[in-house]
Design brief:
Layout: E1 16-20, E2 37-38, E3 41-42, H1 43-51, E4 58-61, H2 67-70, E5 80-81, H3 91-105, E6 111-116, H4 126-134, E7 138-142, E8 148-156, H5 160-170, H6 175-180, E9 184-188, H7 205-218
Parallel strand pairs: 1-4, 1-6, 4-5, 7-9
Antiparallel strand pairs: 2-3, 6-8, 7-8
Helix pairs in contact: 3-5
């Protein structure tokens, strides 16, 4: 089921990657944030360029018609998962969908690695560093400012039943709250080249302009 065309990464765990692309991007004027262009390329392409170093199996979590992704170069063969929980409960539903897909379609994989679709500067070593610290629990990234990054985390597929219970029965919605209920390891990451926060996320047009500036500055 390889869908990225790259070899498995040199890390202790080869996870299934799920890119969380389900938001409506209201602050960006609506539509799919991940398909907005950054340096002439969809933001999703920047994220996936990093992911190819961590895994050979990638999923997208998104609401609505998956065809809008399949019509974009480089995304045609990536499975797009809809939420399996009603009422659009947020990123946890996307993580659950990826866990359940993995249990059924790739049962040899023990973990799911989640990242947002709007973080184009993710650390190149993200996958291996989280994998090295996961153990039997959840490994979550921590930015250079000490801030936790709940949606940038490595999740054991074995937690899927607990997560479904939390979403459907308990009504839990916060990613960090669910993670805190289980064995959790925070993995700190330093700033990137030029002091860029590797978890800088694009929330609005001003952020997109800032990301353009950062890319231009990084080019020789």
């Amino acid at each position: 089921m390889q869908n990225s065309g790259s070899p498995a990464p040199p890390c202790p765990i080869c996870p299934v990657l799920v890119v969380l692309a389900g938001g409506q991007a209201q602050r960006m004027g609506g539509g799919d944030k991940g398909l907005r262009l950054l340096a002439g390329t969809p933001i999703l392409h920047h994220v996936l360029a990093r992911a190819r170093h961590w895994t050979d199996l990638v999923l997208l979590s998104a609401l609505g018609d998956p065809g809008r992704f399949h019509n974009v170069d480089g995304l045609a063969f990536i499975p797009v998962l809809a939420d399996g929980v009603p009422d659009q409960p947020g990123p946890l539903a996307g993580i659950l969908a990826a866990m359940e897909w993995t249990a059924e379609q790739a049962p040899e994989r023990t973990h799911v690695l989640s990242v947002p679709c709007d973080t184009p500067f993710l650390p190149a070593e993200l996958g291996p560093m989280l994998s090295a610290k996961a153990g039997n629990g959840i490994a979550m990234a921590q930015g250079p400012d000490g801030q936790r990054q709940p949606t940038v985390a490595l999740w054991p597929v074995a937690l899927r039943h607990d997560l479904r219970h939390a979403l459907v029965t308990v009504g839990l919605r916060r990613v960090g709250e669910f993670a805190a209920r289980h064995e959790l390891t925070l993995v700190p990451f330093p700033a990137g080249s030029g002091g860029v926060d590797p978890f800088f996320n694009i929330n609005d047009p001003a952020d997109l302009d800032r990301a353009e500036q950062l890319i231009r500055t990084a080019r020789p």
